[in-house]
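User: Hi! I'm working on a homework problem where we have to compare a predicted structure to a textbook description. Could you give me the structure for the chain below?
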Amino acid sequence: MSTKTPEYIDEKVKAARLIIGERLESIRLRQDKQQADVWQAASSSRNTYQRLIKGHGKPSLNSFLAVAEELGVLDAIVAAIPEEQVSPMQALENSGKRKTRVKRSAKIQEEAVLKYQSGKGDTEW
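Assistant: Happy to help. Predicted structure tokens:
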């Protein structure tokens, strides 16, 4: 079943895409980098990069993050998203489900976070 995003969210997301695109392009210019150097280093395409900086379309999260890394702002983006501290028991109570063992995927995710924080992990999670 497809659900439609409320119009106010669509408008807010469009505005955010424009602002983010302008900021990324401003950072690139301040660093005196060529567009081609950025999109090639980010393993992206010219079209994807152009859509990203102009706020058009819906470039993938991976493309956005790769460009952010190439421009040296990925850590700031990650840091800008607050880490919610919800205990496993609180999450269980909020979900209304009964207690089960922690799945292995949570451990894998935790390892990925540790690798990212240490700077030793590759970008393929």
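For your comparison, note the following. Residues 84-125 form one domain. The chain has a mean pLDDT of 84. Good luck with the assignment!
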